[in-house]
Design brief:
0% strand
């Protein structure tokens, strides 16, 4: 079973700070999302939509792979599944 993708908040926060955006509201304004959405993304309370990821990528130049790192839950060869 694979887990839901989660936004890598630290990557976003680091890049936002490089652009002078330190608060959720500043990120929200630049990306044109609600402050509530940005807050829920940063705290892991919601799974990012494709449109949110594309907006974040466009605003801050972060690759989708950086924003949502792939977490491989596939068992390695020779190991038992949990």
């Amino acid at each position: 079973m694979t887990s839901q993708p989660r936004l890598c908040a630290q990557v976003l926060l680091d890049r936002a700070r490089e652009h002078g955006d330190k608060l959720d509201i500043e990120i929200a304004r630049r990306v044109r999302l609600t402050q509530s959405t940005v807050s829920r993304l940063l705290t892991g309370q919601t799974t990012p939509s494709l449109s949110s990821l594309v907006a974040l990528r466009a605003a801050y130049g972060i690759s989708l792979d950086e924003l949502v790192p792939v977490q491989d839950d596939t068992p390695k060869a020779g190991t038992a599944a949990p």
